[in-house]
Each structure stands twice: as C-alpha cells, then as structure tokens.
Amino acid sequence: MAESIDGPVGLRSRTQNVTNNARDQDKVIKLLAAIPESQGGKRDAWKIPPLSGGDRNCPKFVADAIWEFQTFWKARGVCRIVDGVVDPGKTTIRKLNELASSAPPQPKPSTDMIVLIKGWDPKAAGAGEIDKKGGGEPGIDVPSAADLKKSIEQDPQYPKSHVLRVDYWFGGGGRANPHTDPTNAVVTSIKDALRDAKEGEGTFGTLVILGFSIGGRNAVSVAQALKADVPIAYLGIADAAFDDDKDPTRTNGGFSPSQSHNFFQSLTNELPGQEFHGEVKGCHNVPSFDNMPEFQERKKKYDGQLWSTKKDANNYFDQQHKAAVRLGMQQLIPNARKIVLGQSVPD
User: Fold this and answer.
1) Predicted model pTM
2) Residue extents of the structural domains in the chain
C-alpha cells in the first residue's frame, strides 16, 4: 500500500526546516529502509529503521538520505531538482512508493555467534560469569570482543544480512570449584540466541566456541552439553586445563563439531598437584608443542632445580602454560574469523 504524507519532510537546501510531522518522517524512513542501496535507498544501512526526530525536527541522517536519494535519481533523469525535501504527491514520494513496493524481499537475518571462555582462577571473583566488558588479553594475542566483532563485520566477505554476536566469559569450575563452572550459563545463553533468532523470523547461522586454560575445559563441556541441539561449526581450545588424565570432560567425547583444533603442551603434567594438559577425545588434536625449541629450552633450564622449591615449579608451569596458550590463540582467533566469514580452515 502506497504511503501518503500530510506535509513536507526534510531540510530544504539542507538547511531550511519544513513541517516535518513525526508521522510523516516515519513513513519516509520506512520507505527508504525498504529500498536497496543499488536504487538509492538505505535498506542495508538501516536494517533496523531509525526513529524520527519528532514534530518539527528532522534528523540530519533523514535529511541526508533524502538528498542522496534525489541526487541518485536526478542522475538517472527521474528527479528534476534536488532540494532535500519529500513533498506530498510529488516526484520523490511517488518514486519512493514505486521502489518500496517492488523491492525484492529483505533476506532473513542470520545470527552468527562466537563464544570465548577465558582462563580464570576458579576461586576468583567473576569466575564462571560473562565478561560484560569483553576485555582482550594482549599477552596472549586475544583481541577484545568489540575489536573481534568489528574486524569481522567490516570484512567485505561478511554478508550484510548477518548479525554477529561475540560473548566473552570467565572460565571456572573443575573438581575443587564446581560452583563456578560456567557451562550451564553458556549453554543457556547460546540456546536463548537460537530462540531469539527464530522468533525474529531469522536463522541461527555459525556457532564458534573457543577456550583457553580452564576456559578450554569449559568449552569442551559446553560442546558436550549442546550435543546435537545446536550444530557447532568450530571448537578451538588452547592448553585446556583438566583435573587429571582421567577427567571425563577430556576422555568422554560426546560431541562432533564440524571442525576443531586442540593446541597443547604436556611437559608440565609431571609436576605434582598441577592440572593436566593433553589430547581431548572428539577433537582434532594438533601435535603438542613439547618438542618446540622454546619449550625444550625452558624445560632444560628448570631441570635440576624443578623440585627445589614450589616457587620454581610454579614459575616453570606458568611460563610453559602461557606460551602454549599464546601459540594456540594465535591460531584460533584467525580460524574463528575465517569460519564465520565462510572461509576454509585447514586441519
């Protein structure tokens, strides 16, 4: 049904206010939002149509959009003048109605999701909770959630009809601190996103789950809990921290992501009382970092004094573990980007 307006909308010559009834602004915004950019509209830019400025107040973005629409169609011989105003019954409103009624339907939005669970002291404040700030970890080459999201959305290969959600969580749990395990909360969050996408008449697209240290164990646990309910496009973990070599999260499998990578070192497994790092059933286990020169050099340095003090042992553990997490995340973050962009990731 064609839209009609009671008074002019816009800024004449981009400066002079006109009637600008709010209800008329809403109609013009609706029409522009239905027309693709290839026809002078704002469909991609205004996936969610913006609000009007209220009576007698035309927002700059509306005035600019009207000016650009008229300029676009003047170049094609339709509009005789470009004055920045949509007048009742005249050329601009007629062309807006014509294009909006014949525009191809907007593709249904598809929600992509990246979940990253950080390594975190299971006894610390915030363990097992969502990281509302989405902070990065520069020491291990993990960008902030906002920067990761921006880098993907600004890539020309990312479909304009897709919506990307990036959630960072603090890891937790393990045998000694099961009350801080974020698995249930993360699973609920993912299923809520799936439900919201469907209720919005869209689809749930690509799901990527990443984790490092205790967050790697949590990531595996989330994959096990989701099972076949939500397909996982990619699961990536870096030096995941398990209770011991018999930890069922590591040995039970029970999940099947389309692709996965497990990066780890196992040299610190010989330390008494420390967590376990190693292969995970159901993952593509990349050969360990154990034989890399930097890991062997640290091992050689600490051999002989490894058992002398607890401080020595903890220092050795921290250096090996942090190096493995850093090397793993240097692979996993780019892999996550490629998966969401629909690019191939080698095994």
Assistant:
1) 0.73
2) 9-102, 110-340
